[in-house]
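Structure in, sequence out. Go:
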């Protein structure tokens, strides 16, 4: 009888451990799936950037350095292979695009150009979609990180190489800009 109780406890413990492990795998896969959604939006963003750069080049020839920075950041973002590398590269690209938005204020003719306006609207749409899928990615990352850090799943996580993953956050340079009150002029 004692032997059956011990076997029963071992079986229940094994089922519980497998369940914890499977939960961690599910959360990791959800995070990777969420980043795949980001990848779709990033691909669209990367496809639009050369068109935007070409349009702006016609108006802002002396902004060459900024346009080259955007092109370089886009290439780095497209060449990144891991999720963490892509997050870093995309944050750099976002910063470069933010610099473009600031410099465009000096070109009223460009802001009235139909091609530019259409591209700007498309990029704005992609950026909004990116924001939504980044929120989902961060939510999936938060779930994984909570499971990796919480007892008792942290024991299983440590045994099988699960670790805390970074969120897709706004770069500190861009965050400083966002903390400032907007300049409103009439």
């Amino acid at each position: 009888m004692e032997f059956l109780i011990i076997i029963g406890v071992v079986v229940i413990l094994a089922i519980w451990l497998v369940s914890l492990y499977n939960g961690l795998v599910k959360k990791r896969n959800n995070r990777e799936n969420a980043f795949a959604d980001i990848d779709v939006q990033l691909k669209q963003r990367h496809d639009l950037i050369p068109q935007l750069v070409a349009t702006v080049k016609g108006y802002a020839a002396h902004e060459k350095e900024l346009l080259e920075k955007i092109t370089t950041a886009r290439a780095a973002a497209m060449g990144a292979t891991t999720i963490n590398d892509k997050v870093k590269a995309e944050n750099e690209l976002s910063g470069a695009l933010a610099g473009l938005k600031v410099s465009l204020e000096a070109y009223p003719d460009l802001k009235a150009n139909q091609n530019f306006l259409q591209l700007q609207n498309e990029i704005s749409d992609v950026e909004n979609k990116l924001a939504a899928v980044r929120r989902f990615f961060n939510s999936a990352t938060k779930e994984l990180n909570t499971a990796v850090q919480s007892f008792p799943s942290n024991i299983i996580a440590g045994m099988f190489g699960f670790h805390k993953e970074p969120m897709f956050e706004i770069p500190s340079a861009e965050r400083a800009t966002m903390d400032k009150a907007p300049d409103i002029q009439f």
